[in-house]
Amino acid sequence: MTEPAICRHPQALHSHPQLHPVEALIVVDMQTAFVSGGDAVPDAARVLDRSRDLIARARAAGTLVVHLQNDGPPGAVDEPHTPGWELHLPVEPGPLEFVVRKTDDDGFEDTPLGTLLADAGVRALAICGVLSEMCVSATARTALATGFRVVLPHDAHATYDIPPAPGISDLVPAAMSSRAAEWALGDEIEILAHAADTTFTGAPCPAGHVRTPSTDRPLPPVGDPDGIHR
């Protein structure tokens, strides 16, 4: 009798420096509602610190930097043009730094992100931000499916605790949810233990040749009433 096949998952956290640099950094939904104040994700201070470092080093290397900004529905904490919707980290607009607005968890869905990366000749990218199992995961999954090499620094993304559900589970700590989100992305994702191990290189397309995306067009409101990315 043959033994049943065992599905093995070779993904592991890499503690060594990232040897192959990336050409783009995607900063997901680092908006005031999610990373500041009493309703911030539990690890907001850590993810802000790591994201600031990633952005600074990406800019210095001439890497394409794209800030994703979620447009929540009316009444949500990230409803457009409300204080919670604003990006918490400063943006330096230029030929290699953009803000792309979205209404879906997936940063590629109905946005110019894919075109922006293609125009810059990007083949490898890193992702940081919130929320781990929602917008970070959805954007990373599409990037992988599209053929990009994707690096996800473990300490540069975060989410909320999952509240207890009677008869199902006790509270699930945010850190466990974030790790499970990484694991669910499969063995193609490159997980680095430390954001500091992420290395950057200039985008292949010369500065000034990247087309500016039309990101301020009206977008239909989607999502849950509480504004949390599902």
Describe the structure.
- It is a single chain.
- This protein is an alpha/beta fold and 230 residues long.
- 24% of the residues lie in helices and 15% in strands.
- The chain has 5 helices and 7 strands.
- The protein has helices at 32-35, 44-61, 113-119, 132-146, 174-184, and strands spanning 24-28, 64-70, 97-102, 124-130, 149-153, 157-158, 190-192.
- Strands 1, 2, 3, 4, 5, 6 and 7 form a 7-stranded parallel β-sheet that branches.
- Helix 4 (132-146) runs parallel beside helix 5 (174-184).
Short account of what is shown:
With 230 residues, the protein is α/β, with parallel strands linked by helices. It is built from five helices and seven strands, in the order βααββαβαββαβ. The chain has helices at 32-35, 44-61, 113-119, 132-146, 174-184, and strands at residues 24-28, 64-70, 97-102, 124-130, 149-153, 157-158, 190-192.
Low-confidence stretches: 1-8, 214-230
Care to count the β-strands? 7
Secondary-structure class: alpha/beta
Question: Cα-atom Rg, whole angstroms?
Answer: 18 Å
Percentage of residues in helical conformation: 10-25%
Order of helices and strands: EHHEEHEHEEHE
Biggest sheet record: 7 strands, parallel
Give the mean pLDDT. 86
Distance between the termini: 44 Å
Overall spatial form: globular
As a percent range, the share of strand residues is 15-25%
Number of alpha- plus pi-helical segments: 5
